[in-house]
Design a protein that fits this description.
There is one protein chain. The model has no long low-confidence stretch (mean pLDDT 95). The protein folds into two domains: 166 residues, 3-Layer(aba) Sandwich (Peroxisomal Thiolase, Chain A, domain 1); 153 residues, Thiolase/Chalcone synthase (Peroxisomal Thiolase, Chain A, domain 1), CATH 3.40.47.10. Strand 12 and strand 13 form a beta hairpin. The strands form three sheets. It has a nine-stranded mixed β-sheet, sandwiched between helices. It has nine helices and 13 strands. By secondary structure, the protein is of the alpha+beta class. 29% of the residues lie in helices and 24% in strands.
C-alpha cells in the first residue's frame, strides 16, 4: 500500500465587512424585536457588505491573514479553492478573481458550492489534492455575501444571515517550514441528499429560473427556507456524521477538546453538544457576533478559536457542518 501524505492546516484567517447590522437596526426594517431574534436564534448582530464590496474583496483579506499566519507568500500557493454559493460572478469564478487580487497567476483556481458545508467540503478537496501531490500548497476559502440574496422584507429569514469569509492554508505533513500552525487533519466524512434540497434554496437567475433582459427580480432570487424542517435535518445529520467520524477513528467524546459546528442557530449548536454528550464549554459559539455566514461560519470560528488560544498543542477538534443541498459533513483535526 502506498503511503498517503497527511494534510496539515498551516495558517488561518478571516475577515468580515465593516458595517454592523444589529437586531435594533432590524426593528426599523421589519416587524421584529431584539428579544424575538435573540431568543429564537442567539444572534445579536451581523456584518453586511458595503455597496460594491464583492466576495473576492472579503476573501482577499482573509487569505492574506491566513498566508501571514502560515508564514507564506501568495506565490507559494499551488491551488486556490473558494467554497461559496454567492460568487462574484458565474464566470469568471471567484477563485480566479481572488488569484488576480493576490497578485499571482498560473495557480489551479476554481470554486465549489456546498452552501454552508462548503468549507468542510473544501477540507476534503485539499486533502485529496495533497494526497496526490504532496508538494501542493492549497489555499481554501469559505465565504459568502448572503446579504445579496436576502429579502429584507421577510422577517423569518432576514434576521439570520451575515457576510464574511474565512481562509486556511494547507500543505502535506512533510512540507514543513517549521513555522505557523500545525493542525493535522485526521479524517473527513461528507454526505448529501438532493431529494429535499427545495427546503432551502435560492434559484432565481440560475438555468432553472433564468432572467431575461428587463426581467424584474422576483422572490425566487432570495433565500427561501422551511425553517422547522431544516432545523430537524441539521441536528439529525450533524449528530449522525459526528458520531460516525468519532467511531471510525475510535475516539470518545471525552477526548474532544473543542467542537466547532456550523453557526446557524444557537438551539442547533446547543442540541448538537447535548446529543453528543459534550459539555457547553467545549462547544465554540460566535453566532451572536456574525449570524449565519454560510460557508464562512466554520473557518471564521476556526480562526477566532486560534486567536483565543483554544486550539493549543494536543487539542482534538471536531467539526460539524450542514447546508443547502442538503449537504453535511464532519472533520477531526489534531493540533500539534
Amino acid at each position: 500500500m502506498p503511503v498517503i501524505e497527511q494534510s496539515v492546516i498551516r495558517g488561518l484567517g478571516f475577515h468580515v465587512p465593516e458595517r454592523i447590522l444589529t437586531n435594533k437596526d432590524l426593528e426599523e426594517l421589519v416587524e421584529t424585536s431584539d428579544e424575538w431574534i435573540t431568543t429564537r436564534t442567539g444572534i445579536k448582530e451581523r456584518h453586511i457588505a458595503a455597496e460594491g464590496e464583492a466576495l473576492s474583496d472579503i476573501a482577499l483579506q482573509a487569505a492574506k491573514k491566513a498566508l501571514a499566519d502560515a508564514h507564506m507568500e501568495a506565490d507559494d500557493l499551488t491551488h486556490i479553492i473558494v467554497a461559496t454559493c454567492t460568487p462574484d460572478s458565474y464566470c469568471p469564478n471567484t477563485a480566479c478573481i481572488l488569484e488576480h487580487k493576490l497578485g499571482v497567476s498560473g495557480k489551479i483556481a476554481f470554486d465549489i458550492n456546498a452552501a454552508c458545508t462548503g468549507f468542510t467540503y473544501n477540507l476534503e478537496m485539499a486533502r485529496s489534492i495533497i494526497a496526490l501531490r504532496p508538494d501542493s500548497v492549497v489555499l481554501i476559502i469559505g465565504g459568502d455575501i448572503l446579504s445579496s440574496r436576502t429579502n429584507w422584507a421577510d422577517r423569518t429569514t432576514c434576521v439570520l444571515f451575515g457576510d464574511g469569509a474565512g481562509a486556511a492554508v494547507l500543505t502535506g505533513a512533510s512540507n514543513d517550514n517549521g513555522k505557523g500552525l500545525k493542525g493535522r487533519i485526521l479524517d473527513t466524512i461528507l454526505s448529501s441528499d438532493g431529494s429535499i434540497g427545495d427546503m432551502l434554496k435560492f434559484n432565481g437567475g440560475g438555468s432553472s429560473a433564468p432572467y431575461s433582459l428587463g426581467h424584474v427580480v422576483t422572490e425566487n432570487h432570495f433565500i427561501s427556507m422551511q425553517g422547522r424542517e431544516v432545523f430537524k435535518h441539521a441536528i439529525r445529520n450533524m449528530v449522525a456524521v459526528s458520531q460516525e467520524i468519532l467511531d471510525r477513528n475510535k475516539v470518545s467524546t471525552d477526548d474532544v477538546s473543542l467542537v466547532i459546528t456550523h453557526q446557524a442557530n444557537l438551539r442547533i449548536i446547543e442540541s448538537l453538544g447535548k446529543k453528543l454528550g459534550i459539555t457547553d464549554e467545549r462547544v465554540f459559539v460566535n453566532l451572536h457576533k456574525y449570524g449565519n455566514t454560510s460557508a464562512a461560519t466554520i473557518p471564521i470560528a476556526l480562526a477566532e478559536a486560534r486567536e483565543q488560544n483554544r486550539l493549543t498543542k494536543d487539542s482534538l477538534l471536531l467539526v460539524a457542518a450542514f447546508g443547502g443541498g442538503f449537504t453535511w459533513g464532519s472533520a477531526l483535526v489534531r493540533f500539534e
